[in-house]
Amino acid sequence: MIADVPHDHPLLVQFRQNPYPLYQYLLATAPVQWNDILQAWTLARYADVVNSLTDARFSADRTKFEGSAASYQVAKSMLVSDPPDHTRLRALVQKAFTPRIIESLRPRIVAVVGELLDRMAEKGSGSSVDLIEDLAYPLPVVVIAELLGVPAEDRVKFQEWSAVMAASLDPLVAAELMERVPVARDGLHAYLRGIIAERRREPRADLISALVAAEERGDVLSEPELVVMCTLLLIAGHETTVNLIGNGMLALLRNPEQLAVLRADPGLVPTAVEELLRYDSPVQMTGRIALEPVEIGGHTVDTGQWVLPLLGAANHDTAQFADPERLDVTRNPNAHVAFGRGIHFCLGAPLARLEGQIAIGALVRRFPNLELAGEPKRRNQITLRGLETLPVTVG
């Protein structure tokens, strides 16, 4: 991360508003490029992105060449860990995200979506609603909170903490935001320690109770790792799904012919969600650090240098996707990298897919005259691409 970057820096603005022309330029002219501003190699090609995410010569552990993990204060999450720590940490929560467990959540997700759409409908025909505030945000927050065992009514408390920590994932971070990160992190950690203490006294049938039991066994999870794990699951468990639903619905509303295709054949919803993930990916980039010199596209990435695999660019690479700038809800196969690849493939991908399918499918069915009611507002982030607002009329 680079601090002291002004809010209106041209690169930040371009990435935030519409990065796809930049991706097209990089794919055509400089698919592997050293970026002085980012102090990293940007990788735009699909093949290079996949290789960087699966090649063991690249590490997710940003502390390997930064001296210590002091900046994390407590422990590293599996997001920035390598094997064997990554393997151990991921195995602890993997069983909570199996296809069977995720499918068992379907009735609850359907019920929550139904309640949220009912509230939207109560505002009356022709009324304006904000799809982010009224659907895209509350749905995944309620689901991940219930799965973890965090009171869903506390979502207002952790919404601000989560937003600050998610924004800090950007490679360009303003100094003002960086000053807020420790405050947000400490606030969220203190909150979660309170929940963890409650589960020690009174275990329940939730994921935090299961993780507490693993920590108490002593050989699989330390208390600092427990806090960081809960933090990651809470933030990652809703941030990307908010963006999937928001970005996805905006893409459909701006491509009414594709929305019509989906309305005519509801069975296309799973295929459509995969295309929405590809077309405007919730996560636009990630980071890896070279453990040894690696040649990519005629360039040598030296030991200790960062690469930024541009997931959003890879998902628009003509070498992998025909006519990638066109939204096609029937596109199949669709081997996008919106959820990453390799050992760090998004643990919550099955849950995000299910929530996206249920929410978008129900929204399209329930409101046949849904349309934009103004200009959406983008979040001031580039790594996690999403909307602050998405005003629509429900028809």
Describe the protein.
With 395 residues, the protein is of the alpha+beta class. The chain has a single domain, classed as Orthogonal Bundle (Cytochrome p450). Helix content is 51%, strand content 9%. It has a five-stranded mixed sheet with strand order 1-2-8-5-3. A three-stranded antiparallel sheet has the order 4-12-9. A hairpin with a 4-residue loop joins strand 1 (32-35) and strand 2. Helix 9 (155-167) crosses helix 10 and helix 10 (175-201) crosses helix 12 (223-254). It is globular. Residues 67-73 have low confidence and may be disordered.
Write out key terms for the chains shown:
alpha+beta; five-stranded mixed beta sheet; 395 residues; 12 strands; 51% helix; three-stranded antiparallel beta sheet; Cytochrome p450
Helical content (DSSP H or I, runs of 4+) = 40-55%
| Radius of gyration based on Cα positions | 21 Å
| CATH class bucket | Mainly Alpha
Order of strands across the widest beta sheet? 1-2-8-5-3
Count of distinct structural domains:
1
Low-confidence stretches: 67-73
Describe the structure in brief.
The protein has 395 residues and is an alpha+beta fold.
Write the topology of this structure.
Blueprint: H1 10-17, H2 20-29, E1 32-35, E2 40-43, H3 46-54, E3 58-59, H4 85-94, H5 99-104, H6 106-122, E4 128-130, H7 131-136, H8 138-148, H9 155-167, H10 175-201, H11 207-217, H12 223-254, H13 256-264, H14 269-279, E5 288-290, E6 294-296, E7 299-301, E8 306-309, H15 311-314, H16 349-366, E9 371-372, E10 377-378, E11 387-389, E12 391-393
